[in-house]
Design a protein that fits this description.
- The protein has helices at residues 10-13, 21-31, 46-59, 77-85, 93-105, 153-169, 188-199, 226-244, 256-267, 281-287, 305-312, 316-321, 327-341, 391-411, 414-419, and strands at 2-8, 35-42, 62-66, 89-91, 119-121, 125-127, 136-141, 144-149, 175-184, 205-211, 214-223, 248-251, 271-275, 296-301, 345-351, 366-373, 376-383.
- By secondary structure, the protein is of the alpha/beta class.
- The protein folds into 3 domains: 2-169, Molybdenum Cofactor Biosythetic Enzyme, Chain A; 175-251, Alpha-Beta Plaits; 256-419, Maf protein (Alpha-Beta Complex).
- It has a 6-stranded mixed beta sheet, sandwiched between helices. A 5-stranded mixed beta sheet has the order 14-13-15-16-17, with helices on both faces.
């Protein structure tokens, strides 16, 4: 089954709002084994929208329309779709009553134009909207399907999950099942070389998605039963683990911060952070995870050299000779943090995030990350800048690599022998 997504709204075309619908729907549909070949955004113009929808109906099995279901005259999605599909609209008393009740609960009187939202395409499947006013619809005719969903993400996403997804699952042959494998520490091209034969396999499918600093591998299988599909996926993940080793940090997990917190919880250990160039970002990400209070001891933001010296015990000689952005400083920051926190793992970062402050010897993007564990320290030197003025990228990469270094030392016992020094 091939799908297409058309996002309707002048505010999207003008860039006033970010179009998150295409990303969400594409990810959900891919997980169901439904191909998405086209994304289109179009303003609230009947002529242009009609032309785009006409083309979509000619080349795709199912077309998703988002937005344009409101009560105003520029909300044209439903009317145009009905015209092209050759169906009429009729007022639905039940939906009308629901709308009136919604406005009554809000202490408002429903205006006359809101009745437009109760106009229902004939023979359409009505998608009840428990998160807003505008219902959605599924129109099927002549082997063509159009799914109409409201524009606000807080309405669209739960409506797809609870209304559209079950409908589509009934119309697919067999069970579609997916898992997301999260990989850090290897680039997309290098990763693909290691698993190219798996990427080109038929069932399950293996798809790579590059993200900031990492790669997501989606493994999807189709089978007659849920159990059979899961077995196919798990078998493929086993092969991925054999090829990629500890660069895989989690399955169906939100990110490195979650993986780190869960690993610390499982091992009954704790972590603390001392941050210069990241300004508390590592601590913030760790403490986003529910239950992080069990494993997070403290976080110190030590931008000024004076604070590095006074709080973490970095020597003045180090700061005056090799500077704050150095291996020596990072190591001393980690050791000083350990004395303050008593945590099992103490991670310290110092670097030049830019856009200013760099030099020929230490250009923007130079970062040192140190992890202390029971008196031993692992310190790495990184260079993250690809171009100038990439402050956010440098800081993000620093956070990810710092958390990954802690993760590796927790989960891989050989890391102690390979990396740590007394």
């Amino acid at each position: 089954m091939n799908a297409e997504i058309i996002s309707v709204g002048t505010e999207i075309v003008l860039g006033d709002i970010l179009n998150t619908h295409s990303q969400f729907l594409s990810q959900e549909l891919a997980g169901m084994g439904i191909n998405v070949f086209y994304h289109t955004a179009v303003g609230d113009n009947d002529r242009r929208f009609t032309a785009i929808l006409q083309t979509a109906l000619e080349r795709s099995d199912i077309v998703f329309l988002t937005g344009g279901l409101g009560p105003t005259t520029d909300d044209i999605t439903k009317e145009t779709a009905c015209e092209l599909m050759g169906v009429s609209c009729r007022y639905n008393e039940e939906i009308g009553a629901r709308l009136e009740a919604f406005f009554a609960r809000s202490g408002r009187v429903m205006s006359e134009n809101n009745k437009k939202q109760a106009m229902v395409p004939e023979h359409a499947v009505i998608l009840q909207n428990d998160w807003g006013t505008a219902p959605g619809f599924i129109i099927e005719k002549d082997h063509r399907t159009v799914v109409l969903l409201p524009g606000p993400p807080r309405e669209l996403q739960p409506m797809f999950t609870h209304r559209v997804k079950p409908y589509l699952e009934q119309r697919t042959n067999g069970i579609i099942f997916s898992k997301n494998v999260r990989v850090f520490g290897i680039g997309e091209s290098s990763l693909e070389e290691k698993i190219v034969d798996l990427v080109t396999s038929g069932n399950p499918t293996v798809a790579l998605y590059a993200k900031t600093g990492e790669v997501l591998i989606r493994v999807t299988a189709k089978a007659p039963s849920q159990q059979a599909a899961e077995e196919l996926v798990d078998g493929m993940i086993l092969q991925l683990r054999e090829r990629l080793g500890n660069t895989i940090y989690g399955i169906d997990i939100g990110g490195l911060h979650e993986a780190l917190v869960h690993s610390l919880q499982q091992h009954g250990e704790t972590v603390a952070t001392a941050e210069s160039c990241t300004g508390g970002m590592i601590a913030a990400q760790i403490t986003e995870v529910p239950g992080s209070s069990e494993v997070f001891e403290m976080g110190a933001v030590t931008y000024a050299n004076r604070i590095k010296e006074q709080l973490l015990g970095v020597s003045r000689e180090t700061l005056e000779t090799v500077g704050a952005v150095s291996r020596e400083c990072a190591v001393q920051m980690a050791k000083g943090l350990a004395e303050k926190s008593g945590a099992d793992y103490n991670v310290a970062v110092t670097g030049i995030a830019g856009p200013g402050g760099g030099s020929k010897e230490k250009p923007v993007g130079t970062v040192y990350i140190a992890v202390e564990h029971h008196g031993r320290v692992w310190c790495e030197h990184y260079y993250f800048a690809r171009h100038r003025n990439e402050r956010d990228y440098i800081r993000t990469q620093t956070c990810l690599n710092a958390m990954n270094m802690v993760r590796l030392t927790i989960e891989d016992p050989t890391a102690y022998e390979v990396h740590y020094e007394s």
